[in-house]
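Reviewer comment 2.1 asked that we show a complete input and output for one of the modelled complexes. We chose the calcium ion case, as it is the one discussed in the main text.
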Amino acid sequence: MHPMLSNAVKAARRAGNIITRASEDVGSLKIQTKTYNDFVTEVDKAAEGAIIDMLKDLYPTHGFLGEESGESNSEADFIWIIDPLDGTTNFLHGMPQYCISIALQERGVLTHAVVYDPNRNDLFTATKGRGAFLNDKRIRVSQRTKLQDTIIGTGFPFRDFTHLDTYLDMLKDMIKKTTGIRRPGSAALDLAYVAAGWYDGFWEIDLSTWDVAAGGLIVQEAGGIVGDFEGNESWLKTGNIVAANPKIFSQMLQTLSPHLTDDLKTPK
Ligand code: IPD
Ligand code: CA
Ligand code: CA
Ligand code: CA
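Response of the prediction step:
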């Protein structure tokens, strides 16, 4: 394993220990509401702090983009993109479906990624050009070729309802054209599941860079395609994302395309 990836794994496991300890008594946590239905606790912040402290010690010249602490040193060549707890709502309800997501971007290119599920001890990793792994075993996207035979993951809009009607139209078509839809509640794990071939595809509107950076690279390194709703590169910036095996990717784009409003297309 590349030393930078192995340090990211150590940081993710350290955050995992903080979260697991806190999960034994979620009832006692003080919950802050960032905006409607958007929660954060001291656990999200402590986990992010632990990751950044460790990586900053090792790489003092690097920049950081973390969900809870924002951007620092954003002009640096190396930027760590961190979601310390993806699936906070699940965590707060005692539902064991959440993860830690850490990606490294080098001059704009994603090079290393970790998505760690502390409940199952599932460690998904990837390095650009070196493939994707689950606990040291190589993973690949599924080989299904017909949308009708697939399980597709997604996330519902739950904070900002600007795109709710559009989303529901997309969902109706996806429900009719697939075997099943899943919404477990952690976008980074959803992407890892595409990489592992457990889902055949995934889409969601309006995610953030820290939700998709690590999972996106893991899907690509598992042989999948990641794009925005027109199949282009803007997914990391816009958070409008489709990820799937190559055969299913184009069928998902076709299914979504009649519903695209201008603001969901690739920015000009
Ligand atoms: C959320 C989860 C969820 C997705 C939301 C994200 P958070 O992240 O990934 O699955 O639907 O849009 O914001 O806030 O729990 O880190
Ligand atoms: Ca959040
Ligand atoms: Ca998240
Ligand atoms: Ca989070």
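The first helix runs from residue 3 to 23. We note this here for comparison with the apo prediction described in Section 3.2.
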